[in-house]
Amino acid sequence: MKIGDVGRLPIFREIPLVAGAAGREREMRWVHIIDIPDPLQWVRGHELLLSTGFAWFREETWLSGLVERLHDAEVAGLVLAVGRYFPAVPEPVRAAADRLGFPVFAAPFRIPFIEIIKAVQEQLLREQYESLLRMEEIHRTLTSAALYARSLDELCASVAQLLERSTAILDPEGRILAIADPAEAEQAPSDPGKPTGLRKPTRANVKAGTLPSFCTGVVHERGIEESEVVHHNGQPVIVSPIQVGRERKGYLVVLAGSGPITGLDLRAAEQGATVAALHLMREEAAVHAERRVRSSFVDALLTPRMAGSAGLAEQARLHGFDEGAQHVVGIVSEERLLGTASRVRALTSTQEFTQREHLGGVVYDWLRKHDKPPLLTYFLNLVVFVDVVHGPRMPGQGDSWQDLYLRLASGGARPVLAVGQPHPGLEGVSRSYEEAHAALLTQPLLQGVLRYEDARFLHLLARIPKTELRRWWEDLLQAILEGPHPGTHLEVIRALVEAGFDGQAAARSLFIHPNTLRYRARAIEKLLGRDLSDPETRLLLAAAQQIEAWLGTHEAVSPSEPVNRQQ
């Protein structure tokens, strides 16, 4: 309760404020009577002190000093009974009170203090009761919003209507996620206990000046860690962080509007931020669950033996998979995430995991933008997705792939995008995946999209039985596979082919000294009985690597054991 509110009580019509009018906003919590010369040991702060002045000294310095001591003790104000011990409030008291902004009232001696105490205490109890009712309303409204609000817009509108103040929810960088102005809210019939229907507010609905430009500046720059009132262009604003565990999810912002900000407003904003955090957690949980289910479905699509499963066909319909259309599989990664030889490897750090998740998010948004089911999954350092193609070839499909590539490349990334050819039905997905995988493993990592259809050598390999290709590969590398350290020697061959037989570049890719590479290269030449500088040898080894990638034989070769050719 403010001292200014006390002065508006009916009984105070006869008890004027005679000094310290600048202190009307001082907070008052209770009333106390003291009639001793030094009351300081009997006060605790925020009292409205009543005194007859009976024990006061008359010296001017003592009187002005008394006011200073009461002010320093954070006493809310003073009511002095005048007409008996003091005919009026002494001038030294008035002067000190005006100088310090310490409110002093002059009460006629005939008004009993008990009547003043009764009136003030009744008002305090009334305000406390109203505060409890308001707290209950805040709790009920925000609990209802936590249960029934379907979006941040609805939650934001509930808070705006509850506090009758413009409200916004921002992301951690200060960008607006939802915004509401109570003036724009429209009541609509709703179920009991549920939030009323509100027209979704937009930036255009919010009146000029209602949401200041501080959103992208003050919030982020100040580093606000807990709910507080900040000022922007002279306007007070409540900012409550939205926190989920240790992660900052954003801020709930409430503007002052026409009235002053109260403690209940601050508490309501804090509770609103908590509800927003719960809403975001629920959304994230739903998204993660949906992605896990969708990822499992895509994993099944990529497995050839699952294509004829009746259960898979039913899942396909649930996920919006059009069995009558053709589908293309794309594989996305980033150059820094790829292995030196096989290009497929496990992630080794949180940063790499974050990079892969970012790539997946770009693909997800791209599919959504084109109104396609976001069918994607993750495998080690790769993001694998399924794109639908209506008809033999979608017009402008090449431009569409380039659009995705450019989106992936934003921010200085070096993406790798490999795509297979379109094939019909559930069975065609695994086939397109094999083609995209082959394009990723065999083609040089040049700028742009790696298309299987552009890899003519792969088309040739596709016409040869895999058993024949495997026999040729094993015959060429028999001495390597059955000799010492087959895994190490195969790794050196792959690195040399990748580097165009540039020894320095191959050594760098393997993180070994060039002399070590030369030593291993001589061992390989001795085992093969061939000169690695011979063009024919280089052509054969390059072909062997293409076949190895096509067959996936590198995944079956142990670094320490030779391949058993009788298997």
TrEMBL record:
Q: Which domain of life is it from?
A: Bacteria
Write out the ranges of the annotated region (Disordered): 182-203
All copies of domain PucR C-terminal helix-turn-helix, residue ranges: 490-544
Domain named CdaR GGDEF-like: residues: 311-440
Domain Purine catabolism PurC-like per the UniProt entry, residue ranges = 6-124
Q: Which Gene3D superfamilies match?
A: 3.30.450.40, PucR C-terminal helix-turn-helix domain
One Pfam match, given by its short name, reads GGDEF_2
Family stated for the protein in its record: Belongs to the CdaR family.
Xref: PANTHER family: CARBOHYDRATE DIACID REGULATOR, PUCR FAMILY TRANSCRIPTIONAL REGULATOR
Q: What is this protein called?
A: PucR family transcriptional regulator
- Which species is this record about? Limnochorda pilosa
Q: Which lineage?
A: Bacteria, Bacillati, Bacillota, Limnochordia, Limnochordales
